[in-house]
Amino acid sequence: MNIYFHGHRNYIYTDIYSSSSSIFLGTPEPEQVLNLEHVSRAKRRTRAESDEGFQWTIQRIRLSPHEKHLAATLKCVTYSKMLTFVSILTFMFMYIYEEWATDDVLFYTTLEGLSSSCVFRLDLASEGSGKVTSVYEETQPDVFVEVALSRDRQILAINCNSRTRSEVMLIDVTKSHLEPFVIQPRQLDLLYHVEHWKGSLIILANTGPGQEYQVMQSPTSEPSMASWAPLFVPNPDTTIKDMDVVGDYCLLVLKTPANELALSVMSLRNPKETYIIELPSWACAIETKKPGLADRQNVLEFLLSSPVHPPVPFSLDPEKRLLLSDPGTQTNSESHHKYVTTRSKACSQDGTLVPVTLFHAVPVEDLSQAPLLVHVYGAYGRDLSMEFCPVRRFLLEQGWALAYCHIRGGGERGLSWHRQARVEGKRRGAEDLQACLQKLFSSGVSSASLTALTACSAGAVPVAVLCNWKPNMMRAVTLQAPFLDVLGTMEKADLPLTVEDRDEWGDAVGNLHHRHIIASYCPLHNITPQCYSSMLLTVYSGDPRIPLEGVLKYTKYIKKAIHTHLNRKQNAVLNVQPGANHLGPEDFVQMLEEVSQKARGTGRLSTETVLPDI
């Protein structure tokens, strides 16, 4: 019995339902469990806060194992704060991610600013008690702590992760003594994640060839690294993206050498019994469902989607080797064959082949005059988002082509793909992006005068670097919450993410070599008088991840550089929005307004828009 909230999609599986502001139990006479308006009123502490108002959205709902209690995680859009509401006894705690260990025990982590370092236990065993005890407190500022329950609900993991180290503590929730024990103490460059299967630990660790992920196994009684035995090593150029243990099978999400998704199914009783399931060629994103008690435990349910293909539900029975899709979704309908997915590779400056995914509605040879929207990220080892987006599909219907450039710094080709574009290798991301554009244009896809680039957060770095290097390679740029002053940010240790991000960008204060590297490519510090592309920069005034000061400076320097070169104002807009959002508004109306403004920014490339004074 579960309800999941992911983005703007709601998956409802039973007798719990929600309106825009409430959660109800679907009994014959619906009982209101939570009203967000009441939460908003309860959290207003000052007159200023009351005047501004709190906007809460439901992020996630967790039911205790036998549905005795409900925990709902809420997010305050105005201040980017988290709150968990626990019913039926009605407790509220600020800034929380949570998991039920039993019907009466909830483990949760507190979020202070952008840091999660403490784990607590809420005990509801006796009515009205609500006893809270501290379980764990992390001392390292660059380590993020979270809790997660295994799929079989036998163990609860306390995951302590930094950019370069992992440490996992487990709690056996089947026992009355709920005390954590360490699997493997953290060590530099060791990353691992743990699942549970019949008294054994199934471990996904970067101990494979080239420090890539492989699957290991150890007994729960001897969990340290010395006891890890290999179960599965992926083929060269094949990367493991995710792992699930379903019944007696280990299921792996793979990215193939052709940059396509596939599933590997391995019997844990006989690891040599392994087979591969090919997924639809259009599939670019997969989202697995965590089962509830009423769900089939030996079946994996998941959604497949792409930027232009809506999510389609699938279920896999690994024992029967049976992959089924919901017949009601008509996966073979015209909507999934109307748009073409073309995968290719661009040769970067150092000879590295960079994957490019292209979505189009007409043959490639007919795309020479089509406007092109290019997406890029390339940081923190994270894949470029490829989930369904109605706006992207609309652009395709209007004759656009959409390109996704999987440059180094991301995680598409494994952990080494990220390592190659960290710190000293940061320029490689922009070099890869340049190669992708050249590949597209030389293949007859659009042209520089019809091309717009879009990115968010750290993805703005390779885009803005390329704007400094080759401003004639694109017509327009739209950047959301852009990270543009890398040097200035990494010089300030008091900012929320600077210490944590040194593994990604380098230490601009304590390492002179790192400082020189950052200064050599930093978008803000390498602006020169020339003709820059049309720009739309959207930033959120309360975003703790992206200092507003850096975006304001960047815009000011761009204006000055363009005026020096051309003696006129450029088609550029700085859009400063209120709130602490980082990836855009969650309110649907606000989201549409922002999308509309971006569409005007990319669609009216020939219309001069005056950049407001700062």
Automatic annotation (TrEMBL):
<dbReference type="GO" id="GO:0005856">
    <property type="term" value="C:cytoskeleton"/>
</dbReference>
<dbReference type="InterPro" id="IPR002470">
    <property type="entry name" value="Peptidase_S9A"/>
</dbReference>
<keyword id="KW-0378">Hydrolase</keyword>
<dbReference type="InterPro" id="IPR051543">
    <property type="entry name" value="Serine_Peptidase_S9A"/>
</dbReference>
<comment type="function">
    <text>Serine peptidase whose precise substrate specificity remains unclear. Does not cleave peptides after a arginine or lysine residue. Regulates trans-Golgi network morphology and sorting by regulating the membrane binding of the AP-1 complex. May play a role in the regulation of synaptic vesicle exocytosis.</text>
</comment>
<dbReference type="InterPro" id="IPR029058">
    <property type="entry name" value="AB_hydrolase_fold"/>
</dbReference>
<keyword id="KW-0720">Serine protease</keyword>
<protein>
    <recommendedName>
        <fullName>Prolyl endopeptidase</fullName>
        <ecNumber>3.4.21.-</ecNumber>
    </recommendedName>
</protein>
<dbReference type="GO" id="GO:0005794">
    <property type="term" value="C:Golgi apparatus"/>
</dbReference>
<comment type="similarity">
    <text>Belongs to the peptidase S9A family.</text>
</comment>
<dbReference type="InterPro" id="IPR023302">
    <property type="entry name" value="Pept_S9A_N"/>
</dbReference>
<dbReference type="InterPro" id="IPR001375">
    <property type="entry name" value="Peptidase_S9_cat"/>
</dbReference>
<dbReference type="Pfam" id="PF00326">
    <property type="entry name" value="Peptidase_S9"/>
</dbReference>
<dbReference type="GO" id="GO:0006508">
    <property type="term" value="P:proteolysis"/>
</dbReference>
<feature type="domain" description="Peptidase S9 prolyl oligopeptidase catalytic">
    <location>
        <begin position="394"/>
        <end position="589"/>
    </location>
</feature>
<feature type="domain" description="Peptidase S9A N-terminal">
    <location>
        <begin position="99"/>
        <end position="320"/>
    </location>
</feature>
<dbReference type="GO" id="GO:0004252">
    <property type="term" value="F:serine-type endopeptidase activity"/>
</dbReference>
<keyword id="KW-0645">Protease</keyword>
<dbReference type="Pfam" id="PF02897">
    <property type="entry name" value="Peptidase_S9_N"/>
</dbReference>
